[in-house]
Amino acid sequence: MNNFSHYFELYPVSTAPFMHRMLEDYRIRKPFAGMTIAHNVPLTRTTLLKIACLKESGAVLTVTNPSFIKESKETLEVLEKEGVLYTPLHQLKGTYDFLLDCGAELVNQCQATKGIVELTRTGAIRYENYQDTQSPIVSVDDTRLKSLETCLGTGEGVYRAISQLSKQPIDNKKVLIFGFGKVGTGIAYYFAQKTPHITVIDMLPERLNLITSKGYTAVSGSEQKDVEIAIKDADIIITATGIKDLLSQSYKRRWFKGKILANAGAEDEFGFNFSEKSVLANKKPVNFALEEPTLMEFLDPIFFAHNLAIEDALHNPTAGFRPLDNSHDNRIVKSWAQHHNWSLKKLDDTF
Predict the structure, then answer these.
(1) Which residues belong to any copy of the S-adenosyl-L-homocysteine hydrolase NAD binding domain (predicted)?
(2) Nearest CA to 64 among 19, 102, 97, 27?
(3) How far apart are CA 282 and CA 268, in angstroms?
(4) Which of 80, 139, 176, 201 has fewest C-beta within 10 Å?
(5) What mean pLDDT, rounded, does the chain reach?
(6) Residue extents of the structural domains in the chain
(7) What pTM, to 2 d.p., does this model score?
């Protein structure tokens, strides 16, 4: 059975410099010695590096797994071997010094005495409106560095999943993307490496201008006839709006016949008019059909920031919701870009 050390070998410094750096730092400093932490982040093999760092910090950890993804048997075996307590989400209750959350799923069943750290946009929205707290709530989503995962990481994962699951070459295919937020932006970027035929549908005028400026074809979601033409002309159709049942409520099912269909959102954006078998990965977020939905190089800075935000909250214990301190955000983005040979200008041009 593998232990934490195996995964640091599997993901070396070249792939996960932030996790390796944090592991050594926490091993020396023990910054959270004796603190209790409830940790709710998808239990994949990559997450084991993040958890290993927290164990080295001296914290007393309780690990669970979000409701939207099944934990892997492999991770549970490693946690047991390392002596880290795992509790199913529906059974996790009580008071902890810190809650490290994903999707604000701990908010109604656990309490935090020193702080809460949230990873996602959905969770950030919920915690921003959360009144029952005397502690800081730090959002990692409200940062530039989150785009490394949400834009680049998810975009690459969606591209990789569609390439594998469709079993068809992507070169020169006509790709239609619904939505040009962080996820849609990343999807367009990666597909554009293989085909010049990228069309994006969005409702917001500022996004339509941005789509055009990047060299893609922009279609307003309010122009029904233009959307119909774009759907019928596409080879691959990907949803990334976050709106449940969007395509079933808005468009005719027959327009999509013979297309490769994929959902990149947490919600079923294809909806009731589409069978599971008609959409890749049975309508679930398509990249989660992969063993590694997001590559470690994109998760590494996010995991680092999620753990680092504990120290942000300890340094500034002011109650209420706020983003991770901007100085941390800029430093992490700059360091990631240098390590992975991306210029800051290229990042600016991408998201």
Answers:
(1) 150-293
(2) 102
(3) 10
(4) 80
(5) 95
(6) 4-139+295-350, 151-289
(7) 0.91
